Amino acid sequence: MKPRLSAVFVLLGLATSVAARAADLPAPAVAPAPAVYDWTGFYLGVNAGYGWNTGDGPLTCVGPTGVSFATGCGLIPFAGLKPAGPLGGGQAGYNWQAGQYLVGLESDFQWSDIQGSTRTNGPWPHVNTLAISPATSFFTASHKIDWFGTTRLRIGYAGFDRTLIYATGGLIYARVDEQTAVVHQETGISYPVSESVNRAGWTAGAGIEYAMTRNVTAKLEGLYYDLGEDTISSHSVPLVNGFTRGMTFETRGAIVRAGLNYKFDWGGPVVARY
Description:
two-stranded antiparallel ribbon, mainly beta, 274 residues, 8% helix
């Protein structure tokens, strides 16, 4: 029994020695919590993209008595107007982040080459008559957005590390050029009219933004816009009858653009709290 008891005491001594040495070893390092990107702060940026709209508003013709499409008005076939083109500009904004959610305000100003034109050649019939416009008659229309700007609220979710997804909406304003004419070359009579006007409406859309570095972010967004409609018309030149002819232009469409922002370092990354 004594040899066995001695072995037990030896094992207990060894275990105690090992435990004491283990207690003297340094504690294992604990990895720091990962940093979470903080979107709070002021930013400036640039963007470029493409836009289009629909100009499918109807042609107009009013007779001498004020009746729309009275006897003698030309029934001009019109396939619609589809302006489109590139755009580019800059933006500025400020974000407030609370936890994983974000509220921001952004304004931008854009140069635009969203434009389009159409031409319809005669002949075409007239209302309630057997008259036909000669083949030398033609109708033209054009529409262009020279520039536009928006001021929008952004509401986003920033729970994907460095990625922000957001919805946005607000005001849009623009400079719009519109032209139309009905020309009868055989008689020299025409109905030319043009207008350049500032218009305002609403816009809404969504986007995604990614923080490439502490200060530089990249975004991609799409917006739908509605600047309403406008009717322009004119009497004949020279003034030989009481008819007026023109067109109703609709300015409703969409833009897609990509951009880069520089966020001023007033916030910076924060340590995640678990």
